[in-house]
Design goal:
The chain has 3 helices and 7 strands, in the order βααββββββα. The protein is an alpha+beta fold. The chain has one domain: Alpha-D-Glucose-1,6-Bisphosphate, Chain A, domain 4. It has a 7-stranded antiparallel beta sheet.
């Protein structure tokens, strides 16, 4: 199984960062790549549309508001992987700063581990840079 991760320190409280990223349907609010997020199955599934029109469906697998974390799987999408499971977590780094971690595990399909890892590392790093830009 391959894996990728990225993190960023943001000079804003963890509660404030979680307020922006903690909603499972909030991706369009902070991730410019995502144009739209539509809720399905009582909020347990999100159907995403990217800026270039790609469709991605993701299922919420775990959510802990107190710990400021959630995990999700991709059920449908354009990525060359299977068994994808990712976690987004916001941790306090003092009173007025936070560290956001985004990580995932997956099985590459038709590409090497290194290629799949580079793809998602780029997604995570770009997404976290965009998130930091909101503050």
């Amino acid at each position: 199984m391959a894996k990728a991760s990225a993190s960023v320190r943001i000079p804003v409280s963890a509660d404030k960062v979680w307020q922006l990223v903690g909603g499972f349907l909030s991706l369009p609010d902070w991730l410019p790549l995502i144009a739209n997020s539509v809720s399905d199955q009582g909020g347990q599934v999100r159907h995403l549309t990217t800026q270039d029109g790609a469709k991605i469906s993701e299922r919420l697998e775990a959510f802990d508001n107190q710990a400021r974390t959630y995990s999700y799987s991709i059920t449908q999408g354009p990525f060359p992987v299977t068994d994808y499971l990712a976690t987004l977590k916001v941790s306090a780094d003092g009173d007025q700063a936070s560290v956001v971690e985004w990580s995932g595990t997956f099985t590459p399909a038709g590409v090497s581990d290194a290629e799949a890892e580079a793809l998602f590392k780029g997604v995570y790093e770009g997404g976290l840079a965009a998130l930091k830009g909101n503050f």
